[in-house]
Amino acid sequence: MQLMIRNNTATPIYQQIYQQIKEQIISGALTEDTILPSIRSLAKELRISIITTKRAYEELERDGFVYTIAGKGVFVARKNMEVLREEWLRQIEEHMEAIVTLSKGCGLSKVELQEMLDMIFEEEPSCNTQSN
Question: Is the pTM of this model over 0.70?
Answer without folding.
Answer: no
